[in-house]
């Protein structure tokens, strides 16, 4: 560290971080602009991960910065319960318009995790309201990540995120995960094999009874557990089985909404209509925390009964629809539109795909996966030291001025949608250099 005095690192207990390792060799970022962070030692760091899958419009866009600055001076906070402010309504309308038809209602949260908890609660309450109160079971999927609330952990399928925290929610079952290296390795885009894995929902229905199942929640493309691309036809099949048994289908689009696949949502990309969509991250470009749940009209309308002075849904957050988040969200959606960033993302996807698959044959690379501006580079784990090789790749890339993300033994990439071709080249040539030198 040369330019910035390193603070005392003791008290901050960092999330999803190897705290002792980090504190022995900290990686501190002090500013960001466009595609680059600046590290505390004054180096530019190319952002290959859009922060954490959220900074889709790139860093420090003056249009978003100014909107937030103006908002904080004008209306810093407005109570979320029984009161409103215009931008919350405006943003809800804008988000609903971007999402597939009929997902017309928007419930604001502050994160992806809260969006998932909210969607699960809406599913339960909805079934109760329509006289199907026995539908309480939730179906998630192995290797699913739905944040860190108790609902999200329960439907999630990440062993380490579950095993420390007790029995979690009861009445949860899991579909099998969809990745199979033997059948799918080095697929470009959607793997051809695996649509039939959706049929496992039939087994779960037969086991528990359809009348006990409330909702299925899946990520259309899973990111956090190592970039798992759905097999061709899988999501369509899941939708058909849910329809057959009256089960709600929730798409967790915390990473896929807002341009990651070149469309507003993965639902649009795949042409599959879910009953709810959970979002966060790209909604505000990561500038102010915010999440949102999109809900189909029939679900929303089922709540609009009973005495008019009573809450229709006993749920919400002090910061639901926070003015700063709404200002950031409105400015972000405008930037996406004015700069045609979703179209840009779609146009870059073939170049990106070629760059990803140029890594085939490099040492340690056992699989490459891509869709839209997402990539997963799976490395052979070191014997008895799983995850170490990917972690070292991450640290060495950082030392060479490129930010990638290690998850398990997979390097996950999800750059801002403003990335240039020369920056894609820089990203993959740095990874190539690092992998060639790695033991
Ligand atoms: C699919 C999905 N759902 C939920 C979450 C949780 O979001 P947050 O960290 O904002 O709570 C994430 C985070 O990466 C995610 O990828």
Shape type: globular
Segments where pLDDT lies below 50 for 5+ residues? none
Radius of gyration: 22 Å
Largest sheet, if any? 7 strands, mixed
The first-to-last residue Cα distance is 27 Å
User: What is the helix tally?
Assistant: 16
Could you tell me which ligands this complex binds, including any ions or cofactors?
pyridoxal-5'-phosphate
Description of the structure:
By secondary structure, the protein is α/β, with parallel strands linked by helices. 37% of the residues lie in helices and 16% in strands. It contains 16 helices and 15 strands. It has helices at residues 19-24, 50-53, 62-74, 86-98, 112-129, 150-155, 159-162, 181-184, 200-208, 234-245, 266-270, 297-303, 323-338, 341-357, 388-399, 421-437; strands spanning 29-33, 36-39, 44-47, 105-109, 137-141, 172-175, 213-218, 248-252, 276-279, 291-295, 365-371, 374-379, 402-403, 405-407, 410-413. The strands form 3 sheets. It has a 7-stranded mixed β-sheet, with helices on both faces. The chain has a 4-stranded mixed β-sheet with strand order 1-2-3-13. Strands 11-12-15-14 form a 4-stranded antiparallel β-sheet, covered by helices on one side. Helix 11 (266-270) links the parallel strand 8 and strand 9. Helix 5 (112-129) crosses helix 12 and helix 14 packs parallel to helix 16. The longest helix has 18 residues, at 112-129. The protein is globular. Pyridoxal-5'-phosphate (PLP) is lined by residues 111-113, 116, 145-147, 219, 223-224, 252, 254-255, 280.
